[in-house]
Amino acid sequence: MAAPIRLRFGAGAAGALWRRLWSSQARDPAGPPPPSEVVDVAALLNDASVGSSPKHRDRSRPNPQATSVLLFPGQGSQVVGMGRALLQYPGVRTLYDVAGRALGYDLLELSLQGPSKELERTVRCQPALYVVSLAALEALRHQRPEVIETCVAAAGFSVGEFAALVFAGALEFEEGLHVVKVRAEAMEEAAAAIPSGMLSVLGRPQSQYKVACLDAQEHCRTLGIKQPVCEVANYLFPDCRVISGHLQALQFLQKNSSKYHFKRVRMLPVSGGFHTCLMEPALEPLAQVLKKIDIKRPLVSVHSNVDGNKYMHAKHIRQLLVKQVVSPVKWEQTMHAIYERRKGIEFPQTIEVGPGRQLGAILKNCNLKAWKTYSHVTVMEEDKEEEKAPEV
Question: In which pathway does it act (predicted)?
């Protein structure tokens, strides 16, 4: 059996991240060859947890400006060509090789060449975003290693939460990829059962989201639809929501948007009403696969989409990753939880790790002062990434 693969990525959370990222390959003698920078880093294993060394104790109360927050985007940020700018960094091709073996198709080719319609499919899109975000993390490790070492919090939008948990050392790369694969397949199957979708709504202070959803449900009942679904699925920033549900309900809201003081509405190019009870058929497959993997306590704070709070332990992670599929993404609340501070206290650097700058655009609308230290990792050869709201 091949010796365990170890990479020199520094100590603490960053070291543990990369040790866990590659360690699962050691169990597979037929696995891909090790990256070019494999070295013996026994010293790394002696300092693999946050708070275990004087270095981390000294940083217990750091200057906020010297710390960082990493944000991982979700479905809707994908674009053909993503990942091309990352191939120059050691380890990125290995990530894609491992992913291709696990998924049974060439994920790198799909990400670089498309076609876009295939990349947009939930079953393809979610694994693609998971891998490209972790590839972007590898690029960030080369470009700005101090950002990884000084990270105090992370969050991911929907499927991006899995990349955030891998970064924090709670999941191994291959196991996380397998879970994302099962999740994507189950969600796509659930979406195919009922015509449904998602509607992006830019509202006003007087917008009536709850009334609008109730009226849309009643409209569906007049059409003979039993137990119609129409509810807020994403809280993005003040006066911006994504509503999910039956297609007929969303079409009703489009037609009557002015009645509820909606400024702009737009159907999103997704296959189903994600983050609602319409995804209940996906719960059991996801719960079963999560039971079979070893989940560790995160080495840095990772905030859950379900309530914006930090994950505390493995059982907590298993419960909320399942619940997330049928619960609204409370991203606005998560941003408030991460960036809440007393007046006069500076903000950490914020880096979006993955394609696009959508999460930066949301942060700008949630907290302008926090956004002023925002940057993102470029994953395209030519930076064509737009600021737009994530979809699921």
Answer: Lipid metabolism; fatty acid biosynthesis
Where exactly are the structural domains of the chain?
1-61, 65-190+281-376, 193-277
Q: Pick the catalytic residue: 133, 158, 207, 304? A: 158
> pLDDT, tens digit, for every residue of 305-331?
999 999 999 999 999 999 999 999 999
Beta-carbon count within 10 A of 89 CB: 18
How far is Cα 3 from Cα 38, in angstroms, rounded to an integer? 11
Dist. CA 298–CA 307, nearest whole Å: 17
* Continuous segment of H or E residues that includes residue 199: strand 196-202
Question: What does the pLDDT read at residue 46?
Answer: 28
Residue type, 149: E
Annotated catalytic residue 275:
yes
CB 201 within 8 A of CB 262: yes
DSSP state letter for 35? P
* CATH superfamily of the domain spanning 193-277: Malonyl-CoA ACP transacylase, ACP-binding (3.30.70.250)
* pLDDT above 60 (res 44): no
> Do 193-277 and 65-190+281-376 have the same topology in CATH?
no
Q: What is the pLDDT of residue 271?
A: 86
Active site residue 77: no
Nearest to 177 by CA among 274, 288, 100: 100
Interval 329-370: pLDDT, tens: 999 999 999 999 888 889 999 999 999 999 999 999 999 999
Strand 374-376 relative to strand 349-352: parallel, antiparallel, unpaired? parallel
Q: What is d(CA 83, CA 129) in angstroms, rounded to the nearest whole number?
A: 10
Catalytic residue among 219, 275, 303, 376: 275
CATH code that applies to domain 65-190+281-376: 3.40.366.10
